[in-house]
UniProtKB/TrEMBL annotation:
Domain of life: Bacteria
Residue stretches in coiled coil: none
Residue ranges constituting the Glycosyl hydrolase-like domain according to the UniProt record: 63-302
Protein name, as recorded: Alpha amylase family protein
Domain DUF4985: 328-454
Region forming the signal peptide: 1-25
Species this chain originates from: Rufibacter glacialis
Alphabetized UniProt keyword annotations: Signal
Pfam family, one: DUF4985
Length: 458
C-alpha cells in the first residue's frame, strides 16, 4: 500500500521510514459491474488494522505473540486484521512454491515452526475477527537492501521499472532514494507471475476471508519508459510515436519546481499515455478479481491506494467509479479516462488519508515547507483534500457507493500528538464506512492502545 514501511530494529526503522494472465493487458475488457453481492456483510462500522511484514517480523515469528496482539486488537475495537504476507522485497511469509520465502529480516531468523497466516486465521476467527492477506503486487525488491527477485533472480532483473528522469533513463534499482524496486505493470510476464502468486495464496488458505492488494500501480509519473512500454502504447493508440519519450513529456531547461527540480512539460501524447497506463492497471484488477473468485467465490477482494486522487494519475491508477468523470474537473484526464475506474471491481477499498490535519478547516494551517509527503504521487498543497476529513469525503464521493470505503491513517504521523490521533480515527469513522490503521507496530511503540480504543469505539 503505498503506506510507510518500518522495520524491526531502530536502524531499519530509520532506513525504511518513507514509509507502502492475459497475454495483452490492454486487450482485456472488464465487466461494468460486479457479478456477486458484496461478501463483506455489514460494511459499516468495521475497523481495519494492518500488521506489516518487516516491521513485525520478529514479533510475529512466535504464535503466542500473535494470539496476544490479536486479543488486544479485538479489545480496542478492531474487526478486521490485514496481514502483510508479501512485502516490497518480493518475498512471502508463507510456504510458497512460486515466490521466495522470507525466513530472515533485520538479523533475526525465524526458528519457531508454524505457518504464520494459518495462525492468524485460526486465532482471529476464534475472536470473531475477519482476516485479509495483504500482498504488494508490482514491486519485487527493496532498494535499501538490494534484496528481492529483481536483484537475486536474473530472469526477473529486466522486469524492473525504467524511469525517465531529468538525468535520463534510469533503472529503478539505481535510484536509491526510492525504497521500492517497482516493476513494469504492463509486461505480460510480470502480470502472469503476480497472478500465479495470488492464485497460490488463495488456494492454499481456503479459510482466508479476503485479500487486499497493494502497489497495483506504476512507480510514478517517470515510469515506465522501456521499449516494451513504448510498443504496447503504440499498439493502444494505433500509431507509432514519432518522438519518444518527448511526445509524452520533456524536462524544461529553464523552469524549476518549488523543490528545485526541472519542470516536466507535457507533450502531445501525454494525456493518452495517462489513459493507457490507467487501462493497464484497470485490466489487471479485473482479471485478478476474476481469477481469485473462481477459486473462492466468497473471497473479499480488496485494494489499497493513496487518497490523493487529483494527483494519483501519476502512478497510473483510477480507483474511482466508472460513473465519475474526472475530465470534468482535471485537465490531465481524457473523456475516456473514466472508463478505467475500477471501484466496481472491489468488495473493499481502503485509502490512505495520510495527513496530520484532520478537519478541513485545518488545511489553512498547512505549512508546505514542513509536511512529510513522500508517498508516490503525493504533492505539496493546501487544498482541503489534504486533510483526513477532506480526503475521506472525496473518496466517498468519487467511488459513488460502489464499494465500502475505509479511510486510513498512518499512526507515525501523530507521534507526540495522541489526541490528534484519536480525533483522526473518529473522523475516518464519521466520513467513511470505518477506519483503517497502519500499522500495529506504531500503536505498540507508542503504547496507544487506550487511544486506539477511544478512536474506534467512542
Amino acid at each position: 500500500m503505498n503506506k510507510f514501511t518500518t522495520s524491526v530494529t531502530a536502524l531499519l526503522t530509520v532506513l525504511v521510514l518513507s514509509m507502502c494472465s492475459k497475454p495483452q493487458a490492454t486487450s482485456f475488457v472488464a465487466p461494468s459491474a460486479q457479478a456477486n453481492t458484496n461478501p463483506m456483510g455489514n460494511t459499516k462500522g468495521r475497523n481495519l488494522l494492518y500488521f506489516d511484514a518487516t516491521a513485525n517480523f520478529k514479533r510475529f515469528s512466535f504464535q503466542d505473540s500473535i494470539k496476544y496482539y490479536l486479543a488486544k486488537s479485538k479489545d480496542a475495537g478492531v474487526t478486521d486484521v490485514i496481514v502483510d504476507v508479501k512485502p516490497i522485497s518480493g518475498e512471502v511469509l508463507y510456504p510458497s512454491k512460486i515466490a521466495p520465502v522470507m525466513k530472515e529480516w533485520g538479523g533475526f531468523t525465524k526458528t519457531e515452526k508454524f505457518d504464520l497466516l494459518s495462525a492468524f486465521i485460526e486465532e482471529a476467527h476464534k475472536l470473531g475477527m475477519t482476516v485479509h492477506a495483504s500482498t504488494n503486487i508490482f514491486v519485487a525488491g527493496h532498494n535499501y537492501f538490494d534484496r528481492g527477485p529483481v536483484y537475486n533472480d536474473p530472469a526477473k532483473k529486466d522486469w524492473q521499472s525504467l524511469n525517465y528522469t531529468a538525468e535520463g533513463m534510469k533503472p529503478i534499482t539505481t535510484l536509491k532514494h526510492k525504497y521500492s524496486a517497482m516493476v513494469n505493470p504492463a509486461l505480460p510476464e510480470v502480470q502472469k507471475y503476480e497472478l500465479s502468486v495470488l492464485r497460490e495464496l488463495v488456494s492454499k488458505y481456503p479459510k482466508l476471508d479476503g485479500v487486499v492488494l497493494d502497489r497495483v500501480r506504476y512507480d510514478g509519473i517517470e515510469a515506465d519508459f522501456s521499449d516494451a512500454s513504448r510498443k504496447m502504447f503504440e499498439q493502444y493508440i494505433g500509431k507509432q510515436v514519432a518522438n519518444f519519450p518527448a511526445d509524452i513529456y520533456t524536462y524544461s531547461k529553464d523552469r524549476k519546481s518549488e523543490d528545485g527540480k526541472p519542470v516536466r512539460v507535457p507533450g502531445p501524447l501525454f494525456k493518452l499515455w495517462i489513459e493507457w497506463r490507467a487501462k493497464v492497471i484497470h485490466d489487471f484488477i479485473y482479471e485478478a478479481r476474476a481469477e481469485l473468485k473462481k477459486i473462492n467465490p466468497k473471497l473479499i477482494f480488496g485494494d489499497y491506494t493513496g487518497a490523493w486522487y487529483p494527483t494519483y494519475y501519476e502512478v497510473g491508477v483510477n480507483w474511482a467509479s466508472k460513473e465519475y468523470d474526472p475530465s470534468q474537473t482535471y485537465s490531465w484526464a481524457t473523456p475516456n479516462y473514466k472508463n478505467f475506474g475500477y471501484a466496481e471491481a472491489l468488495d473493499l477499498y481502503t485509502t490512505g488519508s495520510y495527513y496530520f490535519e484532520v478537519d478541513k478547516k485545518e488545511a489553512a494551517n498547512i505549512d508546505v515547507n514542513t509536511v512529510n509527503r513522500s508517498e508516490a504521487g503525493q504533492t505539496r498543497g493546501t487544498e482541503d483534500w489534504y486533510t483526513v476529513e477532506g480526503s475521506a469525503e472525496m473518496a466517498m464521493k468519487i467511488t459513488k457507493g460502489k464499494v465500502p470505503v475505509y479511510a486510513g491513517l498512518y499512526v507515525e504521523q501523530y507521534k507526540g500528538h495522541p489526541e490528534q490521533f484519536v480525533k483522526a480515527l473518529k473522523m475516518c469513522r464519521a466520513k467513511s464506512d470505518g477506519a483503517m490503521v497502519f500499522d500495529i507496530v506504531h500503536v505498540i511503540n507508542e503504547g496507544w492502545w487506550a487511544e486506539l480504543k477511544r478512536g474506534l469505539t467512542e
